[in-house]
Write a structure and sequence with these properties.
The structure holds 3 protein chains of 3 kinds. In chain A, about 70% of the residues lie in helices and about 0% in strands. Chain A is an all-alpha fold. Chain A folds into 2 domains: about 80 residues, Orthogonal Bundle (Rna Polymerase Sigma Factor, Chain: A), CATH 1.10.1740; about 80 residues, Orthogonal Bundle (Arc Repressor Mutant, subunit A). By secondary structure, chain B is mainly alpha-helical. Chain B has 2 domains: about 50 residues; about 150 residues, no CATH class. Chain B is built from 11 helices and no strands. The radius of gyration of chain C is 24 Å and the shape is elongated. Chain C has a domain of about 30 residues.
Chain lengths: ~160, ~220, ~325
Amino acid sequence: MAQAAGGDVRAFEQLYRMHLPRVYSLVRRMAGGRDADELTQDVFVRVWQKLGTFRGDSAFTTWLHRLTVNVVIERFRSDATRRQRLRDGEDIFEVLAAPRHSGDLAMDFETAMLKLPDGAREIFVLHDVEGYKHQEIADLLEISPGTSKAQLHRARMMLRKSLR
Amino acid sequence: MNDHDLLTARLSEYLDGELTANESSRVATHVAECVECQEAVAELREVVSRARTMTDTEPQRDLWPRVAWVIRAKRRFTFTLPQLVAASLALMVLSGGMVWLARLGGERTDIPAVGASERDLGARLVAPARFAVSNYDDAIVDLQETLAEERDKLDPETVRVLEQNLTSIDAAIEQCRRALANDPMNPYLTEHLVNAKKRKLGLLRRAAAMSMSSGS
Amino acid sequence: MQTQNTLTIVCLVAASLMAGVPVVCAQPGARPPDTDQTVPAPRGSRLVIDNFAGEVIVRGWDRDSLRVQARHPSRTRVAVRAVPTGFRVSASNERGPQGSVDYDINAPNWMPIRVDGQFNYVTIEGTQAEVSVDTNRGDIVIKGGNGVTVKSTEGNVTVENASGKITLSSVNQGISISRASGDIVAETVNGPIVLSDMRASSVEAGTINGNIAYEGTVANDGRYRLTSHNGSITVAVPESSNATFAVRTYNGSFNSNLPVKGEGDVRDVQRGRRAIFILGTGSAEFELESFSGGIRLRKPGTSAATSKGKDKDKEKQPE
């Protein structure tokens, strides 16, 4: 790690390979599969730049995790309608919660998760997959904890179908 | 919404232990009596369990080459853009940026933050590059005027060669412009256009130097 | 006939009299020089040759003296003047234009040389010092040199066995560099740039309407930037090299018979998006850019024509 912080690209590659699956999976799930490759690259470039600021006061994986979440959120922060979707989610929920016809193929769980509406998916990934608390999510996404809880429930309810 | 619906909406919170004792008790009572809600709770538990046990995957493509490229570029503090663009940026930063930004026709352009990814860099530097292009344009016009006046100091063959090559560069510039019209934020095209203008300027300067030193 | 024989004999006699001094009797029938002057050259002095038109040949030798031979119209005077920095060789004619002057010069191989003029064919060889040539028309050939600068408008530029900082600029003709080490910058508008048997650690080559071909070894920390507008770019380096290739083209194509590892998406190599391919550890950096030309990576000795279908190695080719 010290070597990587010291600017050694080869050492950094080892760090990259070690943490790639975690970062990629988190990015992919939060972003719904869109631009996952590019976002993953952005994350590691940011890691390279900020490595010098890592104090060792938390586990590296925690620090990396936070950084990853921040990169993804920043990317979608530019989407002005995103916050709107989180708040006015109820209408969409009603439409999407309608039962599907039996002709549909059963989707596997992860695919179903990727197909969730953006806001619901982000919160589901952060809470249920990554273990963030609602207050933390609220701070990160600049929403209220109430909205976070509502969106989480919505996501879980939609994912019930993929269990069958 | 009836009681059932209201309580259903709180099943997740119930599962996560986020309800007050009273609220939790109310939900528990309802669930005990409602088959639908019992199924829902079981399924929600399953969803959470699946979420917690998802395995990680790796991307299909090797993403390392581009990461290595970008971090090596950052290490050198160069952005593979013509030096004039970089100089323009420095000038913008030093002079507080407002005068130069005004020349961009009123667009608000942020000075690119350190730490931008390659993609961000490309997009954010398009505006200053446009500024550099307009700077080149002014210099090109000046030199072309000078050359028109000094033209007869050069021998005809030299004039022919210079004009032929200026035409070549102009053709390249035009192709680039047309491509940019379809793809305005393309960083490669912007850089390429600036480079082509730089070449044109270089050639005009050389021609001007020749005309000034000849006449012997 | 008789006159030629006489001249040859005169030459041979002169050669034996001036023992040790090479006499240029290039070919039978060649006119003896109109000017032939030798001056001692103190270490550190520099040479400037100011010639409007003609041929300028400079050969380095290991003597500390400067010999200037020149052929020119009778009314033209060639002067070898001492100046503060060394020597200035130029011609003048009181009655009008100086006409064309052909120089044949021997200079110490430590002496920096500069040639300025309008229409000159220039050949400089056997020097270990700085060379600088600025001319409008005429081909330029430089063999040797440590630190080479060439500016030409219409002339082929050929540089061999040079080192140090090499800056070559032509407009309407091509540039050819071989067996060079050091920092190289080569630029032309309407001609190709061919770099062969290279051992350089820094190369920047750009043309608008020409192809660029680079062949040689790759320094582990080397940086190479090859750009063209319409032309193709071909890079042939040993398979054991360590290099990252960043490829950008707008309308062109890309293929490789070197075993590079890439992101694998051929669509990336279009519309100017930078596609990255790595060979070995990827330590050296190549930037290869062409607006509409093809970009090719090759194993040494394989050309584009022979690579199709024959190589089992990874070859990425856009459909």
